[in-house]
Design goal:
- The structure holds two protein chains of two kinds.
- Chain A is an alpha/beta fold.
- Chain A has one domain: Rossmann fold.
- Chain A is 20% helix and 26% strand.
- In chain A, the strands form two sheets. Chain A has a nine-stranded mixed beta sheet with strand order 2-1-3-4-11-10-9-6-7, with helices on both faces.
- In chain A, β10 and β11 form a beta hairpin.
- The longest helix of chain A is centred in the first third of the chain and has 11 residues.
- The longest helix of chain B is centred in the N-terminal third of the chain and has 9 residues.
- Chain B starts with a strand and ends with a strand.
- Chain B is an alpha+beta fold.
- A three-stranded antiparallel beta sheet of chain B has the order 2-1-3, covered by helices on one side.
- Chain B is built from two helices and three strands, in the order βαβαβ.
- Chain B has a single domain, classed as Phosphoribosylformylglycinamidine synthase subunit PurS (Mth169, Chain: A, 2-Layer Sandwich), CATH 3.30.1280.
- The chains are: A alpha/beta, B alpha+beta.
């Protein structure tokens, strides 16, 4: 299993992501100017502040040369995980539905949150049990998940809400307590909390490791 | 040619910045203000104003959550 972790100017969680991936396979950094994805099996779009979050978080990063390769890879069924800023990038790129808006309270929130796994039929949740609670940290200013009403109904009906903040723990005002979503095909997942910061029980929690372990299971059937 | 683009949060989308400003105004003695919404203004020099709409759709705005309005800037 070979993970590729993209590094944009302004990324800051890519090294943790590489270390998290290395617990379950090999991992390497991919520079955002690259036009191909080398020989990797899964892509991680990491957290941080790509391009200083200018204009809107993710708005500029989605035009990085490597994102074209990521879009092709995703269309062919490749496994892609966007974490925090990476989730914002994937939404801006149209690889995931919806948008992330400024937190309801306008503050940066950094705290451990519990999320419920609502869909275990995705590339990054297959090692989880349905309804399982994962304790992982969230840290963001722009994490309020939004989708227009018709789209939101569709996502709920299709089971595309993968992660939901546990009752009372929604840190940002996301609609329906949504913490993460998946595309229709099940191979592209995005979430605001940071599983890569929760891969060692000695450091608060190892729950986040399940996402990377899921990706390292057998490839999705085409 | 100089163009201006006004970008605002779509109607119905919670705008916490607008709400915060709305709550601050009475403290300064400005009563009765409601429905404050905060967007942004992009000014740009373009060879062809007809291209600005495509720029908005692709980059300047996120059409899922924002409305935009393109205005030719007054020549002065």
């Amino acid at each position: 299993m070979r993970f590729g972790v993209i590094r944009f100017p302004g990324s800051c969680d890519e090294v943790d992501a590489v270390q998290a991936c290395e617990r379950y396979g090999d991992a390497e950094l991919l520079w955002h100017r690259e036009r191909g994805l080398r020989d990797i099996d899964a892509v991680i779009v990491p957290g941080g502040f790509s391009y200083g979050d200018y204009l809107r978080p993710g708005a500029i990063a989605r035009f990085s040369p490597i994102m074209e390769a990521v879009a092709d890879f995703a269309r062919e069924g490749g496994r892609v995980l966007g974490i925090c800023n990476g989730f914002q990038v994937l939404c801006e790129a149209g690889l995931l539905p919806g948008a992330l808006l400024g937190n309801e309270h306008l503050r940066f929130r950094c705290r451990q949150v519990e999320v419920l796994v609502e869909n275990t039929d995705t590339a990054f949740t297959r090692a989880c049990a349905r309804g399982e609670r994962l304790s992982i940290p969230g840290k963001h200013t722009t994490g309020r998940y939004f989708a227009p009403p018709a789209l939101l109904d569709e996502l709920e009906a299709n089971g595309q809400v993968v992660f939901r903040y546990a009752s009372g723990q929604n840190p940002n005002g996301s609609l329906n307590d949504i913490a993460g979503v998946v595309n229709e095909a099940g191979n592209v997942v995005g979430l605001m909390p940071h599983p890569e910061h929760a891969v060692n029980p000695l450091c608060s929690s190892g729950d986040g490791g399940k996402l990377f372990a899921s990706a390292a299971l057998e490839p999705l059937a085409a | 040619m100089r163009a201006r683009v006004l970008i605002r949060p779509k109607e119905g989308i919670l705008d916490p910045q607008g709400q915060t400003v709305e709550r601050a105004l009475p403290a300064l003695g400005f009563d009765g203000v409601s429905d404050v919404r905060i967007g942004r203004l992009v000014e740009l020099e373009v060879p062809d104003i007809a291209e600005v709409e495509a720029m908005c759709e692709k980059l300047l705005a996120n059409p899922l959550v924002e409305d935009y309005e393109i205005l030719p800037a007054e020549s002065s």
